[in-house]
Amino acid sequence: MIGLRIRVLSYTDEKLNGLEGVVVDETLKTLLLETSSGRRIRVLKPNGVFEFKLPSGEVAVIKGDLILGRPAERLKRAKRWFK
């Protein structure tokens, strides 16, 4: 997810709704976004619904609960789903 453009569609803290930026870091439970003004804001994954713009131009809307975990852990889970 690092490097993808993201927009917060819904969040428990309504001040963050509509926030847009680029994912610059990711932890188990958070995403660190950098806005166009250079401001960095850390958001909790389970508290929101996010819109990711993929490199192909497609847009994916994802509940934060579904992306909990480290990237390597998500790959392991995905491998099990697609067997």
Explain what this protein looks like in three dimensions:
13% of the residues lie in helices and 42% in strands. The chain has 1 helix and 6 strands, in the order ββββββα. It has one helix at residues 71-81, and strands at residues 5-11, 20-26, 30-34, 40-44, 48-53, 59-63. A 6-stranded antiparallel beta sheet has the order 4-3-2-1-5-6, with no helix packed on it. A hairpin with an 8-residue loop joins strand 1 (5-11) and strand 2 (20-26). It is globular. The mean pLDDT is 90.
Set down the secondary structure blueprint.
Elements: E1 5-11, E2 20-26, E3 30-34, E4 40-44, E5 48-53, E6 59-63, H1 71-81
Antiparallel strand pairs: 1-2, 1-5, 2-3, 3-4, 5-6
Task: Identify the notable features of this structure and list them briefly.
83 residues, mainly beta, six-stranded antiparallel β-sheet, 1 helix
Low-pLDDT regions? none
CATH superfamily: Ribonuclease P/MRP, subunit p29
Give the SSE order as H and E letters: EEEEEEH
Say how many strands there are.
Answer: 6
Q: Do you know the CATH topology?
A: SH3 type barrels
Beta fraction:
35-45%
Share of helix, binned? 10-25%
Structural class: mainly beta
The CATH architecture comes to Roll
